[in-house]
């Protein structure tokens, strides 16, 4: 199971502004991820806004804007949700690696944590099992929110290094 070893993370997001960016492929799985993310956000006390992009490939550019690249006020944390299912074409590898690398770049370059809620699965059954739906064994939308908020709180504790 992919979630073995996952920590139990309790987060207080009071006063934090979170932007959730959700791709649109694989509607049922995305509905589950979004519902899990909303549950975790409500429980944390954070304020949030949601935007949609077409596919997971478009998550990084939207995350970059939410993190302040190109103007605007940066969110305290960004959560990226998507589902990529392996098919018979190389698209799977390209989309997965673009989303993973792009979201990592945004996070490291801006200092705004990006919760990685992008499922990369062999088939739809595997994705449904991780989507936080009734009968799912994992709730990756909620996990991505908790990780993003926990990291935002950790970053506030770190003193910038003097140069
Ligand atoms: C093209 C494509 C394919 C084949 N599969 C998925 C997928 O499983 N999940 C997903 O989020 N997006 C997929 N896409 C679309 C790309 O992410 C992107 O939206 C298009 O290539 C247009 O840039």
Structural write-up:
- This protein is of the alpha/beta class.
- It has one domain (17-153): 3-Layer(aba) Sandwich (Rossmann fold), CATH 3.40.50.
- It contains five helices and four strands; from the N terminus they run E-H-E-H-E-H-E-H-H.
- The chain has a four-stranded parallel sheet with strand order 2-1-3-4, with helices on both faces.
- The protein is globular, with a radius of gyration of 15 Å.
- The structure holds ligand DLZ.
- Residues 23, 25, 54-58, 82-85, 87, 91, 95 line the site of ligand DLZ.
Helix fraction? 40-55%
Proportion of β residues? 15-25%
Unreliable segments of 5+ consecutive residues: none
Number of self-contained structural domains? 1
Major β-sheet annotation: 4 strands, parallel
Please work out how many helical segments DSSP would assign.
Answer: 5
Q: Give the class-level CATH name.
A: Alpha Beta
Bound small molecules, by name, code or SMILES, are:
ligand DLZ
**Mean pLDDT over the full residue set:** 94
Radius of gyration, in Å, reads 15 Å
Shape: globular
Termini separation comes to 44 Å
Q: For the record, what is the CATH homologous superfamily label?
A: Lumazine/riboflavin synthase
Give the tally of β-strands: 4
| CATH architecture identity | 3-Layer(aba) Sandwich
SSE run: EHEHEHEHH
The CATH topology = Rossmann fold
């Amino acid at each position: 199971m992919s979630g073995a070893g996952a920590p139990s993370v309790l987060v207080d997001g009071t006063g934090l502004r979170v932007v959730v960016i959700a791709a649109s492929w694989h509607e049922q799985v995305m509905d589950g991820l979004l519902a899990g993310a909303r549950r975790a956000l409500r429980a944390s006390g954070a304020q949030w806004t949601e935007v949609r992009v077409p596919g997971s490939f478009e998550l990084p550019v939207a995350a970059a804007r939410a993190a302040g690249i190109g103007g605007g006020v940066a969110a305290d944390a960004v959560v990226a949700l998507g589902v990529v299912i392996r098919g018979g074409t190389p698209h799977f590898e390209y989309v997965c690696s673009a989303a993973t690398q792009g979201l990592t770049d945004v996070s490291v370059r801006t200092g705004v944590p990006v919760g990685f809620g992008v499922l990369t699965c062999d088939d739809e059954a595997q994705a449904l099992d991780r989507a936080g739906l009734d009968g799912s064994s994992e709730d990756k939308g909620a996990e991505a929110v908790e990780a993003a908020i926990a990291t935002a709180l950790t970053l506030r504790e770190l003193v910038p290094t003097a140069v």
